[in-house]
């Protein structure tokens, strides 16, 4: 499995191009903006995207979804519970910054534990609400695409409508900290980290930061 990170938009969102070089299949995770750049990079890398996977529906993670799904004829996958946010620029907060976006209906609304297979690529869906009502992470072996659930040294914001700090901490504790320490985490913003590093040093998880 190959991973190409593109940092897009003023919010510096991590868009991940995940693909198998031998088989040629791949997926796009969280195309937050810059559709032309994302599509050009896919062409340069030479893989065939099979789907767009969303970790959640906030505007900074979905800005390029309508154009990419339309131009590349790709299905859209997101967690069950994100439907309203994906459809509404007000709910996904894109209207607030003057760049309103609404996504097409999802091909599939995902639930906890589902398996997604695209050629040789396989992902397990982990339901991790808290930063958004239907947020999910995607686990492939010991690689985790965790969106805005968990960051290097931090966690996702919970001051937006539909967020819950208590729920987010429960999601991280029950789902992510159950993973092996050497699981590599690819977050929605910022650098990669590991479950072990966050278990030991993340102040939101060690009691060093109180809300």
Provide an overview of this structure.
By secondary structure, this protein is α/β, with parallel strands linked by helices. It has one domain: Ribonuclease Z/Hydroxyacylglutathione hydrolase-like (Metallo-beta-lactamase, Chain A), CATH 3.60.15. It is built from 7 helices and 14 strands. It has helices at 35-45, 59-62, 65-72, 83-87, 165-176, 195-201, 203-206, and strands at residues 2-8, 13-19, 25-29, 48-53, 76-79, 108-110, 115-118, 121-127, 136-140, 143-147, 150-151, 154-155, 184-187, 193-194. Strands 1-2-3-4-5-6 form a 6-stranded mixed beta sheet, covered by helices on one side. A 6-stranded mixed beta sheet has the order 7-8-9-10-13-14. Strand 11 (150-151) and strand 12 form a beta hairpin. The protein is globular and about 45 Å long. 44% of the residues are buried. The mean pLDDT is 95.
Summarize the main sheet: 6 strands, mixed
**Which architecture per CATH?**
4-Layer Sandwich
Give the C-level CATH assignment: Alpha Beta
Unreliable runs: none
Averaged pLDDT: 95
Helix/strand-derived class? alpha/beta
Looking at the structure, the CATH topology is Metallo-beta-lactamase, Chain A
């Amino acid at each position: 499995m190959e991973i190409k990170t593109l940092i897009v938009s003023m919010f510096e969102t991590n868009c991940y191009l995940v693909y198998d070089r031998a088989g040629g299949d791949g997926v796009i995770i969280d195309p937050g903006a810059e559709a032309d750049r994302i599509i050009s990079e896919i062409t340069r890398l030479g893989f065939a995207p099979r789907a767009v996977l969303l970790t959640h529906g906030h505007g900074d993670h979905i800005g390029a979804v309508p154009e990419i799904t339309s131009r590349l004829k790709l299905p859209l996958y997101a967690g069950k519970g994100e439907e309203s946010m994906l459809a509404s620029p007000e709910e996904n907060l894109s209207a607030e910054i003057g760049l309103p976006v609404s996504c097409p209906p999802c091909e599939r609304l995902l639930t906890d534990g589902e398996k997604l297979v695209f050629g040789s690529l396989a992902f397990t869906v982990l339901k991790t609400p808290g930063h958004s009502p239907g947020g999910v992470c995607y686990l492939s072996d010991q690689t985790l695409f965790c969106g805005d659930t968990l960051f290097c040294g931090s966690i996702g914001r919970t001051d937006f409508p539909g967020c819950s700090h208590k729920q987010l901490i429960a999601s991280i504790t029950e789902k992510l900290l159950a993973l092996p320490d050497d699981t590599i985490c690819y977050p929605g913003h910022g650098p990669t980290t590991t479950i072990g590093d966050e278990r030991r040093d993340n102040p939101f998880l060690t009691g060093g930061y109180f809300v």
